[in-house]
Amino acid sequence: MWWMMNEGGGHYCSKKTDDICGDVCGQESSRLSMSRIRCILRGIDLKTYIFLFVLVPTCIFGIYVHGQKISYFLRPLWESPPKPFHDIPHYYHENVSMETLCKLHGWKIREFPRRVYDAVLFSNEVDILTIRWQELYPYITQFVLLESNSTFTGIPKPMVFAGLRDQFKFVEPRLTYGTIGGRFKKGENPFVEEALQRVALDQLLKIAGISDDDLLIMSDVDEIPSRHTINLLRWCDDIPEVLHLRLKNYLYSFEFLVDNNSWRASVHRYQAGKTRYAHYRQTDEILADAGWHCSFCFRRISEFIFKMKAYSHNDRVRFSHYLNPKRVQKVICKGADLFDMLPEEYTFKEIIGKMGPIPHSFSAVHLPSYLLENADKYKFLLPGNCLRESE
């Protein structure tokens, strides 16, 4: 102990006590702790004070601004990667017979093709919906679309499809269109509203007339199966009851190829009472190279901003300047992340490998045919055309 009581009850000071703290001796014990702190602080020079006052607020501010990045970068430490899919090789050439293609996949050919239902929840993706339906049109029995007057985050929205329905006359004879009123519960987890809308889509599918062993495509509007993939699955027997589709993953347009790992789209052999419309992993089986996922592929800057505020991950808009139109346009042309996030990966190698802007691609090979046939109209989705309309 650096101090102790003497026999008469007074204070005793150790000879080893530093001079700077010498005045602590003789103080009441109840004041001793504060006195000791004062001693320590008096021993810190001005440079140290300045260093602490600069460093501590800087660290706090850095964590506030980049906390999400730090969390994503350290993800491999607290979350294990999901179980790998079992990839089914995908064989296709336009000059190869369907019987041969089915055989190559280990399946038999049917006497007649299955019926196919394409069901989607719609928000405001007019251009991508058009490309999707034109791509799938030859092989779809019934197009099923559900629209709400509310976003998943509880923001009121117009019935966009209802107002533009004349643009989709080519599917009208095969269209089952439904609407659902929003609950407008702001602050609620957006995935609750999303799940309720998917339940409503199940009911709409029954109205559309789906029955056992029909094929049901479950995917977001911007997850587009290729035409030949759906034709293969409707003609081949013994395909899995549930099959995910591995899609090429694009961002903003077909100029920015992120990877080939989009997997949420799936095709089901419908079973009444068992099949439920969902957008999560439902099997380990996945068919390789089965289409395209073009995320945030909009014509107008206003559509980007709307989706940033409206979709289930709107919590990623951490600062209001993220929604600045000039910033959004700059990010699109750069191929950077609208939310200034790190890649959502499970290993440090993958995170580091995908950091920074997406490399530009100059290939427009093997894209939806309708897109290329109408290149002038959809120029913004093709390589070399990153500028968007403001409104």
Automatic annotation (TrEMBL):
Entries under Pfam families matching the protein: Glyco_transf_17
Keyword terms: Membrane, Transmembrane, Transmembrane helix
Membrane-crossing segments per the record: 46-65
Domain of life: Eukaryota
InterPro entries given in the database record: Glyco_trans_17
Gene Ontology molecular-function annotations: beta-1,4-mannosylglycoprotein 4-beta-N-acetylglucosaminyltransferase activity; glycosyltransferase activity
Protein name (Swiss-Prot/TrEMBL): Beta-1,4-N-acetylglucosaminyltransferase family protein
